[in-house]
Design a protein that fits this description.
Trna Endonuclease, Chain: A, domain 1, 36% strand
Length: 113
Amino acid sequence: MKQMNSRHKGKQAEDFACVFLRKCGFEIVERNFFARYGEIDIVASKDNILHFVEVKSGEGFEPIYNITPSKIKKLTKAIGFYLLAHKITQAYCLDALIIKNNECELIENITLC
């Protein structure tokens, strides 16, 4: 059996995450926004709040631990760039969407945890 590369696995996880978010009432605004600081996996909107969603998936370990303080710092810079580039002033937060055993868990506003 051919192993999937990490980019393909990541895209699959993001596709799965988008389906989950839509079912939860989110509108997907953009995917894979690249800034020099890093990539924002999903930008979604719900209740007039912009959600920047970092998707992590995996088996045999806890994917949440791949969101390190340095990763959050890079994401925060990328979010700042996104807001400036799109002239956005609405409320926003950084969320984590964890996929494990084909189940999704959305952890909102991870910078306040």
